[in-house]
Amino acid sequence: MQRRSFIAATAAAIVFSALPALAADQKPLELFGVTLKGATRDQLRQVFKQNGLRATREENNYWVDTYDAQGVLEGASEFKAGYVSASGKFAYAEYTFSGFMDTQLVAKVINMVATKYGRPSSQSGNYGLGQVTAKWNMGQGMQIEVSRGWPDTTTYLSFIDSSANSQMRAEIDAEKKAQVTQKAKAQSKAF
Q1: Where are the domains of the chain?
Q2: pLDDT, tens only, 116-154
Q3: Are the CB atoms for 153 and 132 separated by under 8 Å?
Q4: In the list 14, 51, 52, 53, which could disulfide-bond 32, CB 3.0-4.6 Å?
Q5: What is the largest CA-CA distance in the chain?
Q6: Model's pTM, two decimal places?
Q7: DSSP conformation letters of 78-118
Q8: C-alpha–C-alpha distance, residues 160 and 59, integer Å
């Protein structure tokens, strides 16, 4: 009995002692040298401009700022950055790689990301036909995703803070619901 508990305690100690080393090896997800987790809208706007992204819309009344990405990342035409309205914290960023009948575009973007971050944590779909998604789990609730719908072969490279992105989506859903309610109240006398 004591031997089993000694073995179990030793195995647990080995597993738990390895956890901090694994976390230390994983670098925080960055764009242009800035850690995305907890970054603010004001901070990132400055960084984006300094690194060649040209704003097409930067307004605090919107959840998402949009930029022209040409000349910043090869093949990218647009860049978006979304934020939680209540806190101004980073939720997601996304490059758009416009594609017309280029079924291998998604493979090129996946390979580009893999050269920096290694093989994806998960991948689904067929490059030649249909939807494709590749995901890299980066720790701290951060994720990189390369995706393509179908039949449009436009490909998206996204950097996501899962919890902040969920908060932003909840804010957007609440705003849509409030607009529907307001519209119904405004029209209630007509029926």
Answers
A1: 30-190
A2: 999 999 999 999 999 999 999 999 999 999 999 999 999
A3: no
A4: 51
A5: 80
A6: 0.82
A7: EEEEEE-TTT-BEEEEEEEE--SS-TTHHHHHHHHHHHHH-
A8: 21
